[in-house]
Amino acid sequence: MVLIVFLLAYIVRRRLDTHNSLSGDKLWRHWFHQAVKVEAGHESGIAGGLALVVLPALILGLGMYLLDAVGWRVVGYPIEWLILILMMGAPGWRPILQSYSVSWQRGDMQAAWLIVEDRLPPEERGAASSPDVMHLTLSKAFLVGVFQRFFLVGFWYVVGGIGLAVLARGLVALSEQWPQAAARTRFQRLAEWMAWLPVRLLSVTFGIAGDLAGWLREFPASVGGVSKKTADVLMISANGSLTGYALDPERFSRIHPDEWVDFGGRSLGAILDLLNRSMLVWICGLALLVIFGVL
User: Among 2, 71, 78, 291, which is most buried by a count of CB atoms within 10 Å?
Assistant: First the structure.
């Protein structure tokens, strides 16, 4: 049932994303703003934020365990399905990427920047001084966003149940949306710990779903780096797994100067295809685990 629940939730969530509906980020933002105001000098504290994530995760995990103990586990599957739909999803990216690609094709880099500015990490918005840097920053934000909202949730749901899935997604939400900005760095470190194993599994999946030879060349710098952050692992792995210099704008512009106007759209399309193929690999792997009785 784990495979069926996740697969149905993924299909519905992708459909909702297509229509830019039901943003999980908005739900988290509303939930966090119910928190009690922090006293002056304690803005970096994380106890309140952790409580708002850990308690619901614990309640859900315990609830599913009790349902299983009394033989009513089937009642929990619709609940898990609904929660997965709420936890997953990256609505809003599709129109942004389409508009960005059109602006890139027109050569209007200022318009492209204005389109994607709000989607970039605040600390990196001022660093995009050239089209190359802007595009790599956007690509990294897109990769990380999709990983955190699909693969991270799916991994912990399969491994530890809906409670751990909510915990992992909640830590990501805290690192992005907690009202006290001073605490977000600490939440981000916790989210990195939760992402350490699944992001490396996704990195291996990139090699399977993409250019394996290219991925192997980048292996020591990505999966081999124990202290590498999530964004770095994703970018290095994706760059090795993609062909046609999809994540190397500088080299692409030298080798294919006449096709530079199409680079933005082609690169983002290649990244999206790689992510879709990787999710298919995960679903097939999950199906094999079910067939062999592991799940």
Answer: 2
